[in-house]
Design a protein that fits this description.
Blueprint lengths: L16 H8 L3 E7 L17 E9 L6 E11 L9 E5 L16 E2 L8 E7 L12 E10 L11 E4 L4 E4 L8 H5 L7
Antiparallel strand pairs: 1-2, 2-6, 3-4, 3-7, 5-6, 8-9
């Protein structure tokens, strides 16, 4: 018995094992209160009004390509639900530290970064007006981009400089922060 079979040539597809493995690894994000010199995690998380919170965000990238960490938004609330009310935005608009725009605050990202996988910022301790509770929840949305990708309006870390009245990025060109002023920043692209 004879038969004729024809088909397009088969193109084998494969990737080296380490690429497959690194693609399946999980990224480990952390957000920690640090001591005043950023050397260790703060053992006591109580603050007095007038003190500064030193907050450090990290990602453990394992075998991935080098990554740069960003913070899309951070919100303070009185309950663990980030959508509860009252709520106060510390970081918003895909990386604008909007709390630094308020009067009598010194909130800012720390520049330069200690590592691409780390982003540090300071926020002045505060309470919600009219509320006597001593506990505030801070919830942040962290993300990464490839370290070789230039920061842009979607992936940025911008602080408001009161002396110059301008938004300035931790890295990248100043124009990536212009949407912090207008409020027309891309969200979660």
């Amino acid at each position: 018995r004879k038969g004729n079979v024809s088909s397009n040539a088969i193109q084998p597809t494969w990737a080296p094992f380490h690429y497959t493995l690194s693609g399946e690894e999980k990224l480990m994000f952390s957000l920690r209160l640090m001591n005043d010199n950023w050397s260790t995690e703060r053992s006591f998380n109580g603050f007095q009004l007038g003190e500064s919170l030193h907050i450090q965000a990290d990602v453990s990238s394992g075998g991935h390509v080098p990554l740069r960490l960003f913070i899309d938004d951070c919100v303070a609330t009185l309950s663990p639900d980030k959508n509860s009310s009252p709520r106060y935005a510390l970081i918003d608009l895909s990386g604008c530290l909007v709390d630094g725009r308020s009067d009598d605050t010194s909130s800012a990202f720390i520049s330069p970064r200690p590592r691409q996988e780390t982003l540090q910022f300071m926020v002045d301790a505060f309470k919600f007006a009219g509320d006597n509770r001593n506990l505030i929840y801070i919830t942040c949305h962290l993300k990464v981009s490839p370290a070789d990708q230039a920061p842009n309006p979607l992936n940025k870390a911008c602080s408001f400089n009161k002396a110059s009245s301008l938004w300035t990025p931790v890295e990248g060109t100043g124009d990536i922060c212009s949407c912090c002023e207008t409020g027309n920043c891309p969200l979660y692209g």
